[in-house]
Structure formats: C-alpha cells, structure tokens
Amino acid sequence: MKKISIIGNGTMAVDIAQVCAQTGIDVVVRGRSNDKLEKAAAKIDKATSRLVEKERMTAEAKAELIGHIKYTTDLADTADSDLIIEAIAEDIETKIDMFRTLDGICKEDAIFATNTSTISITLIAAAIKRPDRFIGMHFFNPVTMMKLVEVIRGLETSDETFGKIMDLCAAIGKEAVEVADSPGFIVNKILIPMINEAIFVLMEGVASAEDIDKAMKLGANHPMGPLALSDLVGNDVVLDIMEILQRETGDSKYRPCTLLRKMVAGGLLGKKTGKGFFEY
Q: What pLDDT score was predicted for residue 31?
C-alpha cells in the first residue's frame, strides 16, 4: 500500500500514523481542526525526537518519517488512498456516518478499516457500499510499542481484503491475529470483564485497591494491576465496553459493576481526570 489515510487526531490515530509512516508509507492524518492537527504533529515530533536522543532512530530517519505525513481537515485529501483507517469516537452512528461519507469520496478499490475495540464489523459494513472491502484493525495503546493487531473479518470481508491487511500488519512490524466478528473480539472480551470483576472485589470490601492490584501483579504476573489499568484505559471506556458486551450477548455475566457506574457518573474516569481508583 502506497498511501494510507487515518481518520482522527487522537492518541490512537497519531500513533497509527507514526508506525505506518516509519515504514515509508505516505500517510494522511485527517483531523477535526487545525489546532488539533498541530498538536498531533507536535506529538509525533516529540516522540521521534526522543527516539533520536536514545539513538534508536537517526535524525535522517526522523526527517524522512515526518516527510511522509500530511495533515488535513479536508476529507477530499483521502480520496486516492489505498486504505482508510478510522480511529474516531467509539460510537456506531458516528462511525457509520463517517464511512458513508468516505464511500462517496474514496476510490472504488480502497479498503476501509475501523479501529473499533468492540463494535460489530458486519454491522458497520452493512451500512456502506463495499462490505467486501471493510475490515476491523484493532490496534492497542500505545501503538508504537504494542505489537498486537486484532484483524476482524466481517461476514462479507473478502479473502483479498483480509490478506492485504495481514500483509500490511507484517510490513509495519505488528503481529496480527485473525478474529471472527464477535463482541469484544479476543482481548477485550477477556480483559474488560476481569477489570469489572476486580471492581466488584473492591466494592464488596474483599481488599483495598492497592492490595487488589498488588495481588494480581505478584500472583498472576500482570505488569499492571486491573484497577490501575482501568484508570489508564478510562473507567468510562471500561463501562462502555461492558455495556456493549452485555447488550450484544444478552448475558448477565457482563453486567457492569455498580461502583464502576457510580465512578463514571461522578467523573472519576482515571488518569485523564486525575482521579479514579487511584489519584494522579
């Protein structure tokens, strides 16, 4: 693939742009405003400067990487892309509206991918004109460090589309796993309920937040405790995923913990608000 467009200007979108540009692919980052795009460009500049300082990248390689990235607020600049990767709000209607717009702009053989962590690939694909060229690419944060990409096939995703995306993942240094279209895919279907269960343990007074995380780090060899991880991901995001799992499966085992609901309602979202299960 010679040109990839990233729809979004948040952390995930910016990091995806960086890892793609690092392999010599031309990348367009489409954001909502010039101000947000300036922040995105500054983030990539800072991240690559740090790599140069640590001698993990040369100054010439940094300049080449940055030269492969174009920033724009105009969706028309994505028209000739070989692949569009959407990384915007985790809301199905927002995503569908974006892909319908892109459907009328982008070249016919372009592949569309969504970075959703839970939303059905088949459901989004059914709303556009190219379901055979629609696929899920679930990257993990931070994209520049995490090797995994869940590649999710919708019911109509073609073998050709799947093969091209698997090849791209290898080209940008990622390890891809094939996933059927199922709520939560692999990682979130296992990980998020575990976090939710840790919140139940806290709510029931079994142990303190500190000891719950300590136990899981030392007893299960997890690099980070589940409550600290919830704070990092965002307690609102954890709640959203639990609600999607419960709604899509109809299984009561995915009921969100009452304490999680209270914390989200109270604005205790974790690191991004300065307070969650821990203070930052």
A: 97
